[in-house]
Each structure stands twice: as C-alpha cells, then as structure tokens.
Specification:
The protein is α+β, with helices and mostly antiparallel strands and 186 residues long. The chain is built from two helices and ten strands. The protein has a three-stranded mixed sheet, with no helix packed on it. Strands 7-8-9 form a three-stranded antiparallel sheet, with no helix packed on it.
Length: 186
C-alpha cells in the first residue's frame, strides 16, 4: 500500500508540474505581459542591430534585419507620433524588431536620420523607421521571404524610407500573405 501511495504522489506531482508548465507556456502569447518569448529566434534581441536595404522578390527593395529577414510596418500603428499597437497574440505572430538603443543600430542603404526607437509597454525597445515601428513576420522562416506582405490589408514590408512596399508582381500566388489575412489584421 505504501508503494501505491508513493507512486500516486509522484504521478500527482508530475501532473501538477506539467499543468504549471503548460500554463506558463500558454501565457507567453497573452497580452500585456513582459514575456520575451513572443520574439522568435530570428528577431533582433541583441544589443545591436543592422538594418539593410535589400532587394526581395515580389516586393522590391525593402528593409531587412541582421539575418536578412524582411521587416514590416503595421497600418494600425502610427508614425507621428510613433505609436505601437501590436501586443499579445499580435506580437507572437509579428514580433517587434528590437535593439538596445538608437546608437546600437547600424544601417546599410538606409538614411540613419530616419532610424530611431520607441519603448514598448513590455519594456523592450522597438526599432522605428520614419516613425513606424518595425516587426518580423513569424511565418517568414528564411531570409528575404516576404510572406507577410499585404496580410490583412494592414501589414507591409517597409521600404528604406519607411514607406509601404508594393508588390512588384500582379499575382498573389506564392506570396503566402493573402491566405493568412484575417479581419483583425493579424
């Protein structure tokens, strides 16, 4: 009988531990927290960042991060004044491009005067271009992919001047962005 009670306790502790772990993981995508797990491995969570103007198929010359991933702007944000609106589940799908501060950002093919940062409500420092907060798209799993282009009619690859990239192809096939759109813009 003692062995059964001991096994039951161990199983019970394991179940409680698994439940707590699951709750912690599920909370990472919820709004308002200061969880950095909303940022995928490809984003710029380092002390320095590099923004580069790069030619990308179907969208033209756009801004990429240190690893060559396309950076986007969100129409529900604003540039003047700079305002961030993508948090919670939005930030899980569209993680912020971050840097320690403006001085830690280098540029290639982009006017440094257009680059700044904004403090997010979660305490991170997000990179801005011409006032627009910049983001990665979590479904871009390779450098120079632009599957986020046009998602929800509100997400666009950022041009080197902070504008919206316009598709260079009349076809929306293969872009992946159109199939991911929703009424909420993410």
């Amino acid at each position: 009988m003692l062995a059964t009670t001991k096994n039951t306790r161990i199983t019970g502790f394991a179940a409680v531990g698994a439940a707590v772990f699951a709750l912690v993981l599920s909370g990472c995508g919820s709004g308002g927290g200061s969880h950095s797990s909303a940022t995928p491995a490809g984003s710029t969570m380092t002390n320095s960042a590099t923004l580069t103007a790069a030619k990308v198929d179907k969208v033209g010359t756009v801004v990429t991060d240190n690893k060559g991933f396309v950076l986007y702007r969100f129409d529900q944000d604003s540039a003047k004044p700079t305002k961030v609106t993508c948090y919670g589940s939005c930030a899980t799908l569209w993680p912020a491009a971050t840097a320690k501060n403006t001085q830690s950002i280098t540029v290639k093919g982009i006017d440094k005067k257009l680059v700044s940062t904004v403090k997010r409500s979660d305490g991170t420092t997000q990179i801005t271009l011409a006032g627009w907060p910049l983001y990665r798209y979590s479904k871009d799993d390779q450098p120079k992919e632009a599957y986020g282009q046009g998602v929800g009619g509100t997400w666009f690859a950022a041009t080197p001047t902070g504008g919206k990239a316009m598709s260079t192809s009349g076809s929306s096939s293969g872009g992946g962005g159109g199939s991911s759109s929703s009424n909420s813009g993410y």
